[in-house]
Design a protein that fits this description.
CATH class of the largest domain: Mainly Alpha
Structural class: mainly alpha
Pfam family, one: MarR_2
Shape: globular
Strand order of the largest sheet: 1-3-2
Protein name: MarR family transcriptional regulator
Distance between the termini: 46 Å
InterPro entries: HTH_MarR-typ (IPR000835), MarR/SlyA-like (IPR039422), WH-like_DNA-bd_sf (IPR036388), WH_DNA-bd_sf (IPR036390)
Number of domains: 2
Organism: Streptomyces regalis
Largest sheet: 3 strands, antiparallel
Domain HTH marR-type: 9-137
Radius of gyration: 19 Å
CATH topology of the largest domain: Arc Repressor Mutant, subunit A
Length: 148
């Protein structure tokens, strides 16, 4: 039996892209029932920790350019799901938080998402999470090294 050729980097990239797109499509189908976009879900998920986050951190976590994030947050503010406040420690910066209505909305949608998405076994999920975190760390280190 011949030995299979070693996996090429583009194969891994293609697999990661396919997995992300399939997961995003599945997630969006659940969110559609509640009128929530994937970008809004990412913002609400980040803010669900109750900490309040700088808009720059929200943009980074939601993978959105700042101008797009501002429009999205404006929309979430109009829906009374998010509010913005000036940071008391640095008055030049703005913190975003979930409103009580936003917290309720996020908890409800979060339950629906968890109930409808397929899950890996606990061991597989932990393994995948660990490998993906290691991959992200490796890619971030490589980017930092190539920038210097």
């Amino acid at each position: 039996m011949p030995t299979p050729p070693p996996r090429q980097p583009q194969d891994l990239t293609q697999l990661l892209t396919r997995a992300e797109r399939l997961a995003a499509r599945r997630l969006q189908s659940v969110l559609d029932a509640d009128g929530c976009s994937l970008d809004a879900w990412r913002v609400l998920s980040l803010l669900s920790d109750g900490e309040g986050h700088y808009m720059t951190a929200v943009a980074e976590a939601a993978f959105l350019p700042p101008a797009t994030l501002t429009k999205l947050v404006d929309h979430l503010v109009d829906q009374n799901l998010v509010y913005r406040r000036v940071d008391p420690l640095d008055r030049r910066r703005i913190l975003a938080h979930l409103t009580p209505r936003g917290e309720t909305y996020w908890r409800r949608i979060s339950r629906e998402v968890r109930a409808s998405l397929p899950v890996l076994s606990e061991g597989d999920e932990d393994l995948l999470r660990g490998l993906l975190e290691r991959l992200v760390d490796t890619l971030e280190q490589a980017a930092t090294q190539s920038a210097t």
